[in-house]
Amino acid sequence: MALLRQDPAPLGELTSRQWTFLADEATRHHLRGVTYRRLTDSPLGSQVPGAVRERLRSFFLETAGRNAVLFRQTSQMVQQLTARGIPVMLLKGMHLSRFVYAEPAPRSM
Description:
Blueprint: H1 16-28, H2 32-40, H3 50-83, H4 92-99
């Protein structure tokens, strides 16, 4: 995972097994979306085997769609509560996804 930082150290080619392990670890640590985004934005992206890339991409797109629905529902709920004078404060996933991540798709909730 450290290889996904902005300036990774030079890296030899990974084996298919190592790429699969990376995807498994990203899954285990709930980082599939972030891993996909960082890989596609890095020089390592061209080395990712198709099956691993598709596995991460599929989750990324699924998460993006789910988050869009959750944002819409949350927005409606906040508007309704605010209209009734009930203060609302978003915590954890919704807040992180909206204000900490550069885009909401990598953050699963």
